[in-house]
Amino acid sequence: MKYINANNVLPEDIIKAIQEYVDGEFLYIPRKDGKQKAWGEKSGIKDMLKDRNNEIFQKYNEGMTVRKLSLMYYLSEQSIRRIISEQNRLCL
After folding, report:
1. pTM > 0.85: yes or no
2. Which of 10, 46, 59, 76 could form a disulfide with 40 if both were Cys (CB 3.0 to 4.6 A apart)?
């Protein structure tokens, strides 16, 4: 998260009002309702994991074993099975 100096974006009277509650501290201002981003949306990790899971499922369907997939992707066999199960449900 990038911090913005309040002096650069807020009028002086609003800064003084805020200073009555928090003086010299970091303050998080949440996004407006309906403007929040889902987990991983900003960083792109959500899409990366989706692609990885699709790749795991495809390799499994081509005959690769759960054990080999777990070693290849540094995941537990249980995690590989969960991914395969989730991808299977998405295909139905």
Report:
1. no
2. 46
